[in-house]
Write a structure and sequence with these properties.
Layout: H1 2-30, E1 38-41, E2 44-47, H2 51-66, H3 82-115, H4 122-134, H5 137-153, H6 168-197, H7 200-207, H8 212-230, H9 232-249, H10 255-264, H11 268-296
Antiparallel strand pairs: 1-2
């Protein structure tokens, strides 16, 4: 137990150090004024703002963040704590539902794809799984928006194309956010399942009379799920990257939509806090996935049935 505690403390301190470096670099980059320029006069390089001015501004903002002083908006002097209470909550809801839908549909699609490996439906599998991964994110979102508009014009009022306020406004952003991660998980699941079916213990289980259902769930999936779970940090990266386009194109009031507004208005405090909160979501999800994988899926050496 003391050894386990030491490992957790070491990893926790390492993650905290990485997060502090990430926070400081975020503040530093956002503290560089838009008017910052470099000129050469009589062979000498001059800048509109000295490095000391930028570093002093960075240090002041970094220290205020450590004191939990998040600042205020530049236009209406509103405390930026609302980003945590409202915008971060909205983004977390969108990411959570998008992630759950991605995992559920991705694993199911991967199982179905692996069962088609000897059938004529393999071309459909390629089209349904690989092609969406190759498409630009914006194209997928645009196609979903066009589909929602078409359904609405024909009396099927299930999706709301933009805005926020009802559960119908959530359907389309969640669907748009989950398409690429679902295809990615499906592809990984399918490859991992096909790899498991080539192992000797599967042949032994089949030779002993185990049903295909039992082989799939008792022998294949218990070895596939750790590999799928190991890809979750990549899925988190895809989700957060797509979150920017989804919130912007659907006018969904989340962190990344606020990020665009702060950038457009050149509000450093809001820009810094929005980026840091997105970083917190990413770091927490990555830590959660690593903990789940360590606790629930310890390495298993499959023995003969």
């Amino acid at each position: 137990m003391p050894k386990l505690l030491a490992v957790f403390l070491k990893k926790g301190l390492s993650a905290l150090l990485v997060f502090l470096v990430f926070t400081y670099m975020t503040v530093l980059i956002c503290s560089i004024p838009r008017s910052f320029t470099v000129k050469t006069v009589n062979g000498q390089v001059t800048t509109t703002h000295t490095g000391f001015q930028i570093l002093n501004s960075t240090n002041d903002k970094f220290i205020s963040l450590l004191k939990l002083d998040m600042g205020k908006t530049g236009r209406d002097n509103r405390p930026l704590v609302y980003l945590i209470r409202e915008m971060m909550k909205n983004s977390v809801i969108l990411i959570a539902w998008g992630f759950l839908l991605s995992v559920a549909t991705g694993i199911l699609k991967g199982i179905i794809d692996s069962q088609r490996r000897h059938s004529k439906a393999s071309n459909l599998k390629v089209f349904m799984t690989i092609i969406p991964i190759s498409l630009p994110d914006v194209m997928i979102i645009a196609l979903l928006q066009r589909l929602a508009i078409y359904m609405t014009n024909h009396g099927i009022d299930v999706f709301k194309v933009g805005g926020f306020g009802t559960i119908n406004h959530l359907y389309l952003p969640i669907l748009a956010l989950s398409v690429l991660p679902s295809c990615y998980i499906a592809r990984m699941t399918s490859i991992a399942i096909e790899s498991c079916y080539s192992q000797d213990y599967i042949n032994v289980a089949a030779g002993k009379g185990c049903s295909s259902y039992r082989i799939l769930w008792n022998h294949v999936m218990r070895n596939v799920l750790p590999e799928v779970l190991g890809s979750m940090p990549t899925i988190t990266t895809i989700l957060i990257s797509n979150l920017m386009m989804v919130e912007y194109l659907f006018s969904y009031p989340g962190l990344t939509l606020s990020l665009f507004k702060f950038f457009r208005n050149n509000e450093r405090d809001g820009l810094v806090l929005s980026i840091i909160l997105l970083g917190i979501i990413y770091f927490l999800l990555e830590a959660l996935f690593k903990l789940i994988k360590w606790a629930a899926f310890k390495p298993v050496k499959e023995s003969a049935v």
